[in-house]
Design brief:
This protein is mostly helical. The chain has helices at 2-7, 32-36, 44-59; strands at residues 38-39, 42-43. Strands 1-2 form a two-stranded antiparallel ribbon.
């Protein structure tokens, strides 16, 4: 009986949907071979860094 009397004064629980936070992005691992591996017009390391910079700018 006490529980029903106390619950009368509690505010109603909102049923609004809660969106989970987007997963945190971690930078990809960089190996020594990536720094010297030819890749397009530069090296694989430069390509990885450019892609991550472009992705970071598109999120802003």
């Amino acid at each position: 009986m006490f529980a029903s009397a106390v619950s009368f004064f509690w505010p109603p629980v909102s049923q609004a949907p809660v969106r989970p936070a987007p997963p945190k992005r971690y930078p990809s691992p960089v190996f020594i071979g990536d720094a010297v591996q030819p890749w397009g017009q530069g090296t694989m390391l430069l390509d990885i860094l450019r892609r991550e910079a472009d992705a970071d700018q598109s999120l802003e």
